[in-house]
Amino acid sequence: MPLRPEIITGIKRADSTVAAELGRFGVATIHEAYGRTGLMHGIRPVTGGVTASGTAVTCLNYAGDNTMIHAALEHCHPGDILVVGVTAPSSHGMFGDLLATSAHALGVRAVILEAAARDARALRAMRFPVWAREISASGTLKVSPGWVNIPVSCGGVIVSPGDVVVADDDGVVAVARDDAEEILGRAAARDAHEEEVRPRFAAGELSLDLGGLRPLVAGLEQGGK
Amino acid sequence: MPLRPEIITGIKRADSTVAAELGRFGVATIHEAYGRTGLMHGIRPVTGGVTASGTAVTCLNYAGDNTMIHAALEHCHPGDILVVGVTAPSSHGMFGDLLATSAHALGVRAVILEAAARDARALRAMRFPVWAREISASGTLKVSPGWVNIPVSCGGVIVSPGDVVVADDDGVVAVARDDAEEILGRAAARDAHEEEVRPRFAAGELSLDLGGLRPLVAGLEQGGK
Amino acid sequence: MPLRPEIITGIKRADSTVAAELGRFGVATIHEAYGRTGLMHGIRPVTGGVTASGTAVTCLNYAGDNTMIHAALEHCHPGDILVVGVTAPSSHGMFGDLLATSAHALGVRAVILEAAARDARALRAMRFPVWAREISASGTLKVSPGWVNIPVSCGGVIVSPGDVVVADDDGVVAVARDDAEEILGRAAARDAHEEEVRPRFAAGELSLDLGGLRPLVAGLEQGGK
Amino acid sequence: MPLRPEIITGIKRADSTVAAELGRFGVATIHEAYGRTGLMHGIRPVTGGVTASGTAVTCLNYAGDNTMIHAALEHCHPGDILVVGVTAPSSHGMFGDLLATSAHALGVRAVILEAAARDARALRAMRFPVWAREISASGTLKVSPGWVNIPVSCGGVIVSPGDVVVADDDGVVAVARDDAEEILGRAAARDAHEEEVRPRFAAGELSLDLGGLRPLVAGLEQGGK
Amino acid sequence: MPLRPEIITGIKRADSTVAAELGRFGVATIHEAYGRTGLMHGIRPVTGGVTASGTAVTCLNYAGDNTMIHAALEHCHPGDILVVGVTAPSSHGMFGDLLATSAHALGVRAVILEAAARDARALRAMRFPVWAREISASGTLKVSPGWVNIPVSCGGVIVSPGDVVVADDDGVVAVARDDAEEILGRAAARDAHEEEVRPRFAAGELSLDLGGLRPLVAGLEQGGK
Amino acid sequence: MPLRPEIITGIKRADSTVAAELGRFGVATIHEAYGRTGLMHGIRPVTGGVTASGTAVTCLNYAGDNTMIHAALEHCHPGDILVVGVTAPSSHGMFGDLLATSAHALGVRAVILEAAARDARALRAMRFPVWAREISASGTLKVSPGWVNIPVSCGGVIVSPGDVVVADDDGVVAVARDDAEEILGRAAARDAHEEEVRPRFAAGELSLDLGGLRPLVAGLEQGGK
Fold first, then answer.
1. Based on the number of CB atoms within 10 Å of its own CB, is E138 exposed (0-12), middle (13-18) or buried (19 or more)?
2. Lower CB density within 10 Å: C or N end of chain B?
3. Residues of C in contact with F138 (CB under 8 A)
4. In this complex, does chain F touch chain B, defined as having at least 3 beta-carbon pairs under 8 Å apart?
5. pTM of the predicted model as reported, rounded to 2 decimal places
């Protein structure tokens, strides 16, 4: 984190087609394709029932102050996802329906908060996609400048500006900008394999056989009691 | 808290029209209008998708014992909201569908619990509005008398009998009886302002400009990387 | 727990009719009928809006490894519920939509996890009933053999293979195999009583009177203030 | 809570001798004597190994802002305990060694925080008694005026100015000003009884007999297995 | 759990010498020797700085009621450890200094609680070993009979009467009665190996080499930046 | 995070004198001097009563696997502090007394874990400084290679290799390598100021006056009640 507040402009984003394509797969598939990494923890869907993908614009706010969300929106392009970090644990409702109206107008695909969202009912009615640590109306100040487009920690994951972010009802996964294309390929392969075996599961074949796990549990069977 | 259990009758309630009018605004708007105070924390919607407002009847129960909910219902008037405190942390399911049938019949608008609710599916089917710390079927005793209509702590907020309570998907806010009218005025003004600026947000204007925040972040921009 | 991994076959199950009948009642009713015991804590609905009942097949997995879910499915009969324990706290997504496809094909009624479920959106679309400590895409290994059909601790409750498990939006309750029939009788009686008094609640009678609680709070009333 | 910030002066305190005498008993004894009420939850010793008692001066701060601790100290008398509430959940370190130096100089006996304390090592070295929700260096602002000497919610308990507060390694208990004398009598009686039975416990007599609990468990014994 | 409360007498205990010998090793060593199982989670030292080992006597109490601790003490032998389960999550202080006086007099080596302990300062002064989920003075009732010497779930681990329990500052581990001797052998071997390699660690040899891990990370080195 | 596991060698460290000098100040002072940033949350002292400072070597491990701690120790220099991240939430005891023996031999000043430490009693006896999210004996695998000396998220803070880390009983703060010298200057100035005002606090002067806060609360006083 730079010592003094700053707003970085002209960031380099992951390819927008790649970001969009990654959104065809679930968070679980991408997380697996990414070597079981990149998954945020404790960041839950507020809107629910939607999948979103896009390129990250990031901001870092002082806990209890949402100034830099306002500042970051100016630097969002259509197709971006705004990822909001905080300098200390926060259960403040940093993002609500008015800001969602603005974000939607600017083409922002989703907002991810290491803090709370507010106006939950209105966000759901608008179907603007939001993920957050919790839901709370708790109010914020607008007095402390922070940072836009520096790497931020969100849900225990470091997100850099331009990374790809995908979110669904399982949570949120971030993929480094330079790895996005490779991960897209892996995710597609993984998904294709899953669709291939699904009918066999549906027909009653066992994952123990399809997954080659039988040797691992061979010889463990004991007569019942 | 009085040393011995007691049931206070004849409480003075906030004006019922004021309480009803406050229900037109969201919890976030009222919390802001109230100087960022009055918001309960950790108390979540059980029913979901509803807004409720009314005047508080309060009760304080021993943890694991819901006797005073039964006692309090007798003192509820149509338009009241029952606010349930406990003497110690509790994850007991103190309120379920039978009591909801009773509360609904008595005109109670909602129940707010510093503990758990049970029969969640039935409560949702009835659409009886309940907010609670959690959902659990965990059973209660009915052996320890407590208090009705004393100030109680719920979600970290002190609620006195007769206060106005408003709840929605963001949580619950309580407004002191004597302040309700002033807060109603402030909330209406705040809401009017929000509706005025919303179309400008929808048209792409920035909150940085509409909220006068630009000076706060002036000079922070750095060429990208 | 046996010292070495093992898979117990030929377990004795509770009567399937009794298990099915218990599913007519809510978790709260059964928990009460069972002397306020048997209720898991912290295990929440993933699918939501469904009730499931069945006979338990259990497995114990190393945290972060879901091998024994695969192994256990082979030993599930139609009408079973798979109860998944772990050797250490785990927020891994041990069960997702592919395994749900398999479980559904095998006639498994529900899966209960002392860990996380993944693919939440797909599980909801399939309406396959799952309860878990949380929802997370976090990936698992398949390297450590564990146990099938030994008693496991799930949500603080000990579940033995063949026990009856009932789950709804309130959570999950387990009833010992040999007690299931007696508890069914008690639950039915309790439910019948509730249906009998419900119209009286709806007509405005007080639970204080219907529940015989009035003596407990007699003499507590004080003039208001 | 009054609508506008205010500092109440000239509060009426519980008798200082009663407050001091209550400090001779542990928190558990007073909590029991007080009818199992008054106990704060989640408020833990920072200094540790000390017991403190005194009369409450209270303040309510905006979360993340400790202005009113500074304001409240001016209104503390020797023998007081400062009880610090917040308007929203806070893990900020609102009180550290410099303020402890000041509080000690003013005769304040202890500080109780519904938030965090900082400078833990220095506080322990000074042996200034502090209880808090957690320990954190997280910094605060000094921009938002709040309240001094209004009732505050701390650890789920409502504390009014002038109440008696007693704290030890078990946590913190608050006793209403007007009840302090009666509770002192009850606690002394309870303590005397405990000291009377302690030698009998030490000599091997059973609490089942000394506490008259044997009838409750009569007939439960079953031959072992 | 048997349907009706009962007290099982005449339990079969693990060999007392084996139990004592296991106490020579730390909880971590035993947990590893036991195949990374048996470790309770969330159960922390109250007394601190002590190691205890013994044979389990168990009891299951209704949350908020400590009747069965009183009942269980009658069935404890010198060398036993009392393991206390609850029917629902509980933060009640179920065990304090008077009961510790009794337990000590009866030769009980330690008490392990799936709930809270109270009188923490006195317990530390007595140096009576206690582990619990938390520390709280919160009071209990004595009205609901429960169970003694049935398997209980504590810290997510199933403990049966007669099992060996070992506890230190890392927490608590339980070893099944019939496995105790084998685990003792394994733990001793493990400990001997650790003492053998410790001087080599102290002399600067790397665990990468001593543990044979170098092949796992071979080829990962990249020139710095 | 690089897509494939890697170990970065030849990192550039902050000046060791600066790192050592920062250790003269408490975590709270440095956090304030750093503009209220850099503070880890939820990372608590295991050893306790010590302050440590040094330059960061980082590693990222799969949750439940401590391979990369072993790998990272090879790259530690005297004066380093090892900062341990994980790919998913973990309560595994990743670091214990044998590794502490090794780290001490290599001149490592402290270990900071976004997970658990084990062998707490031995660590305290050795007085090897460790901070962790919790204490648990829970065992780890050694099968999954990860990363050494990449930026990691620990306690919600991004730590890069070579940064300065300071830890005491308040927790842990990280200062970016290039900012360390400036922050040292600021911390020294802040500390000097504190030492200057401390005698005035001790003499009874009020922080309200010394901190210039009186205007903020002017006019709030109301006659008592």
1. buried
2. C
3. 63, 88-89
4. no
5. 0.97
B39 vs D contacts (CB less than 8 Å): 87-88
Distance, in angstroms, between F169 CA and closest chain E CA? 18
Query: Whose CA is closest to B116, among C44, A81, A219?
Result: C44
pLDDT (tens digit per residue) in D123-160: 999 999 999 999 999 999 999 999 999 999 999 999 99
Mind telling me how many Å the CA of A3 is from chain C's nearest CA?
A: 34
Q: Are B91 and B65 in contact (CB under 8 A)?
A: no
If you count residue pairs, one on A and one on F, with CB atoms under 8 Å apart, how many are there?
A: 61
Q: Are strands B93-95 and B110-117 parallel, antiparallel or unpaired?
A: parallel
* CB neighbour list of residue A20: distance below 8 Å, 6 or more residues apart: A53, A79
Cβ–Cβ under 8 Å, residues A28 and A172: no
Select from B63, C211, F63 the least CA-distant residue to E93.
Answer: B63
**pLDDT tens per residue across span B103-113:** 999 999 999 99
F134 interfacial to chain C (CB closer than 8 Å): no
Q: Which residues of C touch A173 (CB under 8 A)?
A: 137
* Whether A39 and F88 lie within 8 Å, measured CB to CB: yes
Rounded Cα distance between C160 and F19, Å, is 56
Over the stretch D180-212, which tens digit does the pLDDT of each residue have? 999 999 999 999 999 999 999 999 999 999 999
How do residues F145-181 score in pLDDT, each as one tens digit?
999 999 999 999 999 999 999 999 999 999 999 999 9
Chain C positions in Cβ-Cβ contact with residue F89 (cut-off 8 Å) = 91, 138
Tokens of B23: 């229900």
Cβ neighbours, 10 Å, residue E214: 13
Q: Give CA–CA dist E59/E73, Å, rounded.
A: 10
- Which residues in chain B are contacts of D158 at CB distance < 8 A? 1, 151-153, 158
Cα separation, F211 vs B209, in Å, equals 34
Distance from CA of E174 to the nearest CA of F (A): 13
Number of residues that this document lists for chain B: 225
Say if strands C157-159 and C152-154 run parallel, antiparallel, or are unpaired.
Answer: antiparallel
